[in-house]
Amino acid sequence: MSGDISVQDLDKEQASAELRRLSALLSAANTAYHTHDAPEISDAEYDALKRRNADIEARFPTLVSPQSPTFQVGASPADGFQKVVHSVPMLSLGNAFDDEDVVGFDASVRKFLGIPLDEALAYTAEPKIDGLSLALRYEDGALVHAATRGDGRVGENVTANARTIADIPDVLEGAPALLEVRGEVYMSHEDFEALNTRQAANSEKTFANPRNAAAGSLRQLDASITSSRPLRFFAYAWGSVSEPLAKTQKDAINRLNALGFSTNPLTSLCNSADELIGHYRSIESQRATLGYDIDGVVYKVNDLELQKRLGFRSTTPRWAIAHKFPAELAWTRLAAIDIQVGRTGALSPVARLHPVTVGGVVVSNATLHNEDYIAGKGANGTLIRDGKDIRVGDWVQVYRAGDVIPKVADVDLAKRPENAQPYVFPQICPECHSDAIREPGDAVRRCTGGIICPAQVVERLKHFVSRSAFDIEGLGAKQVEQFFLDGWIREPADIFLLEDRYSSGLQQLKNREGWGETSASKLFEGINEKRKIPLNRLIFALGIRHVGESGASLLARNYGTWTDFETAMTSARIEDGPEWETLLGIDGVGPVMATSLVTAFHQEAERASIDRLVGELEILPVMAADTGDSPVVGKTVVFTGTLEKMTRAEAKARAEALGAKVSGSVSSKTDFLVAGPGAGSKAKKAAELGIQTMDEDGWLAMIEGS
Q1: Are residues 88 and 229 in the same domain?
Q2: What is the residue-wise DSSP string for 20-60?
Q3: What values do phi and psi take at 330, rounded to 5?
Q4: What is the dihedral of CA 236, 240, 245, 247, to 10 degrees?
Q5: Domain count, the chain
Q6: Which stretches in the chain have pLDDT values below 50?
Q7: What is the pLDDT of residues 195-220, one digit of tens each?
């Protein structure tokens, strides 16, 4: 089953099937949790399924559908309740599962805002209550309605029920004319036990946990039942407001408390990732004695103006994250370490485990990342697991925190067999027996066999027909592997020669297992339909190392046509000449990607393979995005010096959204130079070339007039 295969090993068809499976599982889980208040899987398992879904979508972006669980928040409101449209959507939070994720969150916020690591950046850290989200709308101080989260955009009207909760005021004094207070309805452990005792005494249904009890009590069609249940409410956020509550998250929470709402006393200000993690540890140590359920700690950028600048992704804010408590751990024996060879030649070690149940799932495989990880070293050379290496026969601790693909957390040296030997990572490819080398600065060892390595050839062919590349109907990973083994295809161009070679030989194909006349004919039709291909998809399909889907789109936008792209790559010389400088001048293209591109086009065998492929195709220029009447559409802009009103990342994102190309260097093709304080050689070169130069204010005035 595709659910047993790691994300990196999935082909397009398997990925599509797996996404359908995950969508069904997550939809059912959402309905059980949000609509019926009767969860069927653990939070850890839900998080794991959600993370696997996201990882597959990241690898196969064209498989993403508008109905994806990635874009879903909660579940549709249940029948029986009136619907309430949230004026400000109630979005979910991204998750952090370990300290590295927290450090990464802090780094991403700082990078976006341009705040150095050694400069204090205030966050709030508060317990993540395991309850039911509720939005309370007050107009002129009076509660007018209360609504559940629902699917994030439409919730259930539970106003009558909310009015029975003692922690929710009916009237506010000194509040803004419009104020939507958001928080969590929960039930204390003591009240939960008392409720279940009463339910049992009356021969009524008991609840599995306080969260279910709280949700089931609030979502009663009869408010008198809710009134009899001991519900509580913590306020922690807001939606629509007629005027700001404060300038910071912490002050806004204090304002809500002053208005009469209960807020969590464990909410604290922190000024670094280390302080966030320290507060997390403190709350975790108190978890058993709090008297109510929490499942993590939520971090939010404290400055509300910075929150506004950071903005949102599709369903999550950039300025907040939930640091979840660890998932279930389990110990088992490591039976073997296998090496898998990927499309780029990467040798990936996989732990084969004696099956063990982790978080309700039987686990028999785990990723071991790379040879340093096995040796007990991190990416920067620092020790992990206190420097303990991993050996066949070891007793290892396995976890599944937010990822269906298990990982090895620890090794029990006391149980290590006496004959266990340090693992020697292979320096020879197990597939083609070519040298497997590790380049300086690379954590991965790679096979040098290239097109003679069957693992790489097959994986590159699978990549070529993947959804984000050519996406040929009837030709998935399974068929590609079959045709390769039979000698029908050896390179991408062979796919487009199948009909010429075998259609007279249609009989050969239709008589094969799994094929008939109809499927064979449809295959040839599907292949011919993809002889016309957009430039960005072709570049991505070539499978050039370091050129992903976004990189391919970036190159396509900048070069426009295959002729211009091919000419530039053919003419370019590594670290020399104008074509190289132009390539490096594309904002987002660095020396590593540029070197990989130029190298690919100058490898005799690979270039010949590309030329044979292109000879079978009509390559379409990339359609420009609809940018309305943008004054900078199609223009090339360079930013230099210090930007004072936005970070470089913000400036680039905004320019590209308006249809501009952002370059890192000034040339005769540059249309605008935006120069801040400290502009140096780029400003001088722009002046020499007669390029229009403006300051940050001038740039903003020009684009904001669009």
Answers
A1: yes
A2: HHHHHHHHHHHIIIIISS--SS-HHHHHHHHHHHHHHHHHS
A3: -150, 150
A4: 90
A5: 6
A6: 74-79, 402-403, 505
A7: 988 888 888 888 877 888 898 888 88
Query: Which of 669, 674, 665 is closest to 703 using CA atoms?
Result: 674
The type of residue at 176 is: P
142 and 283 assigned to the same domain: yes
Count other Cβ atoms within 10 Å, centred on residue 205: 9
Q: Report which of 333, 423, 428 is spatially closest to residue 370, judged by C-alpha positions.
A: 423
Q: Do 249 and 311 have their domain in common?
A: yes
Give me Rg for the CA atoms of the chain.
Answer: 29
The pair of three-digit structure tokens given for residue 644, joined into one six-digit string: 């004072």
129 and 180 fall within a common domain: yes
Catalytic residue flag (residue 128): yes
Residues ≥6 apart with Cβ < 8 Å to 62: 467, 468, 471
401 and 524 belong to one structural domain? no
Q: Where are the beta strands (DSSP E) in 546-621?
A: 618-620
E-state strands within 242-346: 268-270, 294-301, 320-324, 329-341
| 152 & 22 share domain | no
**Per-residue model confidence (pLDDT) at position 403:** 45
State in Å, rounded, how far the first CA of the chain is from the last one. 52
Is the four-CA dihedral 99, 105, 108, 114 of positive or negative sign? negative
Q: Do 187 and 119 form a contact (C-beta atoms < 8 A)?
A: no
Taking each helix axis from N to C terminus, what angle separates 549-559 and 562-571, rounded to the nearest 10 degrees?
100
Residue 506: its pLDDT value, please? 52
Residue 564 lies in a domain: yes
- For 75: left if phi > 0, alpha if psi spans -120 to 50, otherwise beta; the answer is beta
Instruction: Tell me the residue range of the domain where 344 lies.
Output: 329-415
- Region for residue 603 given its phi and psi (left: phi exceeds 0; alpha: psi -120 to 50; beta: otherwise): beta
CATH of the domain at 523: 1.10.150.20
DSSP string, 88-121: S-----EEE-SHHHHHHHHHHHHHHHT--TTS--
What are the start-end ranges of the H helices in 287-370?
A: 304-310
- For the packed helices 477-485 and 454-464, what is the interaxial angle rounded to 10 degrees? 140
- Structural domain contains residue 431: no
Helix (H) or strand (E) holding 217: helix 210-218
Q: Give the three-state DSSP class for 299.
A: strand
Nearest residue to 148 (alpha-carbon basis) of 113, 171, 182, 198: 182
Task: Please tell me the predicted confidence (pLDDT) of residue 72.
Answer: 57
26 and 131 co-located in one domain: no
Structure token digits, residue 215: 């949700």
Choosing from 50, 128, 407, 530, the catalytic residue is 128
The answer to whether residues 542 and 524 belong to one domain is: no
Predicted confidence at residue 33, as pLDDT, reads 61
Give pLDDT, residue 478.
84
Beta partners for residue 147, in sequence order: 135, 157
Contacts of 217 (CB under 8 A, 6+ apart): 187, 225, 226, 229, 231
By three-state DSSP, how is residue 402 classified?
A: coil
Q: Which two tokens mark 679? A: 């502009």
Q: How many CA atoms lie within 13 A of 360 on its CB side?
A: 11
Residues 6+ away with beta carbon under 8 Å from 702:
631, 632, 694
CA distance 83 to 467: 38
- What is the identity of the amino acid at 63? L
Q: What crossing angle do the helices spanning 562-571 and 578-585 adopt, rounded to 10°?
A: 120
Pairing between strand 407-411 and 232-241?
unpaired
Q: What is the pLDDT of residue 78?
A: 44
Helices (H), 453-561: 454-464, 477-485, 492-495, 498-502, 506-510, 517-529, 535-541, 549-559
User: Is residue 193 classed as helix, strand or coil in its secondary structure?
Assistant: helix
Residue for token pair 């070339």:
689
Total-model pTM: 0.47
And the tokens for 442? 């690379």
